[in-house]
Design goal:
By secondary structure, the chain is an alpha+beta fold. The protein has one domain (4-79). The chain has helices spanning 4-10, 14-17, 26-34, and strands at 23-24, 40-41, 45-47, 53-54, 60-68, 71-79. Strands 1, 2, 3, 4, 5 and 6 form a six-stranded antiparallel β-sheet that branches. A hairpin with a 3-residue loop joins strand 2 and strand 3. The longest helix has 9 residues, at 26-34.
């Protein structure tokens, strides 16, 4: 599980620290919600409010956490859900 403490100690940008499939702790989940108003905040999906990139179709993509049976998982940058 990736933690906020590990992220701070790593001194990496979020996109370098998190890898698709990483489970994150509650403090990173809270960061996704509180850093900006979230783009998406549902029972099973949280997306950071600022676009990360633009895909090949010209759609904004957002860093995304998805709730799974074992917790919140980083699933990469996805279009708005």
């Amino acid at each position: 599980m990736k933690t906020m403490e590990q992220w701070k100690e790593s001194k990496l940008n979020l996109e370098k620290f998190l890898q698709v499939g990483d489970e994150v702790d509650e403090t990173i989940k809270s960061y996704f919600i509180n850093v900006l108003p979230p783009k998406t905040a549902t029972y099973n999906c949280i997306q950071i409010g600022e676009p990360y990139d633009i895909n090949e179709k010209g759609q904004d993509t957002y860093f995304t956490l998805q709730r799974e049976s074992n917790g919140w998982i980083f699933v990469g940058d996805k279009i708005k859900t």
